[in-house]
Amino acid sequence: MMNSQSGFALALLGAASVALGGAITARAQAPAGSVWAGVYTAEQAERGKAAYAGECASCHGATLAGIDVAPALVGAGFLNNWNNTSAGDLFTRIKETMPLSAPGSLGGRTVSDIEAYLFQANGFPTGEIALPPSAPLMAGVKIVAQKPAQ
Ligand code: HEC
């Protein structure tokens, strides 16, 4: 049985971790907007390119054009599949189902680096802030296939 004092201490601990979690989230959250706003950095895409070569290229091809049943991850077909979804949706798809040979084996940072590389390969511009390493933090970033008119 928990006495009221330890219950109070636990409640305090809970409040502190919620406050801390809130602060971390606020700092790391990708700004809401579309992939055309510059939602990853050039260095991140560079790291992602190396990770892609090791984890994905064997099936999806060195040029991301796809091989046999593994679809292209660049171009109109790919963009059409993901149009009007979010960067978080694509992150979750990769994190939970890829590499097909070892789903769930990649950490969040590696997945977001690879996603940055996919964004670069699909012509979305680089920006000042890296794509964050978890789906909820990039849920506000919309994937829009067509570049909006300026
Ligand atoms: C062993 C082969 C294999 C590897 C390695 C692999 N994939 Fe795939 N991937 C597939 C196949 C096959 C499909 C289509 C069937 C499916 O969705 O399961 C697919 C589908 C996808 C899709 C969905 C494409 C769309 O347009 O809907 C994405 C995104 C993707 N892979 C990304 C990746 C990334 C990123 C990696 C590396 C981390 C990776 N894959 C590694 C075989 C692979």
Give a quick precis of the structure.
With 150 residues, this protein is mainly alpha-helical. 50% of the residues lie in helices and 3% in strands.
Average pLDDT reading: 88
Counted by DSSP, the helix tally is 6
| SS-based class | mainly alpha
Q: What is the succession of H and E elements?
A: HEHHHHHE
Using only CA atoms, what is the Rg? Answer: 19 Å
Count the E strands: 2
**Which CATH architecture of the largest domain is right?**
Orthogonal Bundle
Distance between the termini: 64 Å
CATH topology of the largest domain: Cytochrome Bc1 Complex, Chain D, domain 2
What is the domain total for the residues?
Answer: 2
Strand content: under 5%
The CATH homologous superfamily name of the largest domain equals Cytochrome c-like domain
Strand order of the largest sheet: 1-2
CATH class of the largest domain: Mainly Alpha
- Low-confidence residue ranges: 16-20, 22-26
Shape: globular
The largest β sheet comes out as:
2 strands, parallel
The helicity comes to 40-55%
GO molecular function: electron transfer activity; heme binding; metal ion binding
Protein name: Cytochrome C
Keywords: Heme, Iron, Metal-binding, Signal
Pfam families: Cytochrome_CBB3
How would you describe the overall organization of this protein?
- There is one protein chain.
- The chain is mostly helical.
- It has two domains: 30 residues; 111 residues, Cytochrome c-like domain (Cytochrome Bc1 Complex, Chain D, domain 2), CATH 1.10.760.
- It has a two-stranded parallel sheet.
- It starts with a helix and ends in an 8-residue tail after the last strand.
- About 7% of the residues have low confidence.
- The site of heme C has 20 residues, from helix 3, helix 4 and helix 5.
